[in-house]
Amino acid sequence: MISEAAAIAEQTRLRQQIITTDQLPDPIQFIAGTDVEYDKESDLIAGCIAVMDYKTLEVVEIATHVMHVTFPYIPGLFSFRELPPLLVAWEKLQQKPDLLVCDGQGMAHPRRFGMASHLGVTIGKPTIGCGKTRLYGNHTELDIRKGSSVPLLAEDDNAVIGKVLRTQEGINPVFVSVGHMISLETATNIVLSLAKQYRLPETTRIADHYGRLALEEYKRNNMTH
DNA sequence: GCGACAG
DNA sequence: ATCTTGTCGC
To answer: Are A54 and A30 in contact (CB under 8 A)?
Structure first.
């Protein structure tokens, strides 16, 4: 396992490759959600990438991979823990999506390189970071209405590193940020459009669901041995 | 030293 | 992340 110092050096090196403008195919056809599930009673984790039709949100393909954790949970180094299973799942995927929505931050990170950016730069695809809670950055009060948002500012230089977005009225907002090859504005619009009925984008909900199933199935197949 | 801290 | 029904509040 690489050291914490090496991981930080890796982030500061790779962050320079992030593209913050839209590099998406014109009509987006396939979008994917990514998530990683953890097992309470073991060190097993399941990575899941759920590819869906962007227009209808029908599930097109599910790719998963179950393995043992290889890196501890350290705020700021989250991607070194969750990327391994996701990269294997990515290789298993037949239908590569046009962009991916990740469950965590993109550039809304102390070194501007959260897991969404790490995944995007690694596989060379557009990614959006959509976290449920804040990791880094300051923001003002947010209107209670659905669709309202305020910028998330970096704690060191006040740069805009993301957007705090209310996807449902009166419900806790989500933290949207650029992962790779997309603008913050486009990322925000897409997340909002994917959260028509629930707080989290549909992509994340589907990936979470199938990741859970994959982990349970793996455990069933290994209990009798 | 104290609090914060994606999943 | 994970453990989880009823319950408090609008």
So the answer is: yes
Closest nucleotide to A133: CA versus each C1':
B6
| Cα–Cα dist A105/A161, whole Å | 10
* pLDDT 10s digits, A133-169: 999 999 999 999 999 999 999 999 999 999 999 999 9
> Dihedral sign, CA of A38, A41, A44, A50?
negative
- Domains, chain A: 4-21+28-223 (3.30.2170.10)
Conformation bin of residue A140: beta by default, left when phi > 0, alpha when psi is -120 to 50 = beta
SS3 readout for A203-221: HHHHHHHHHHHHHHHHHHH
List residues with CB under 7 Å of strand B. A 35-36, 38, 73, 75-79, 103-105, 109, 114-116, 129, 131-135
CA–C1' span, A139 to C10, in Å? Answer: 26
- At A67-97, the pLDDT tens digits run 999 999 999 999 999 999 999 999 999 999 9
Among protein residues, the one whose C-alpha sits closest to the C1' atom of B5 is A75
Give strand letter and number of the nucleotide nearest A46 (CA to C1'): C1
Contact A95, A30 (CB under 8 A): yes
The gap between A190 CA and B4 C1' (Å) is: 30
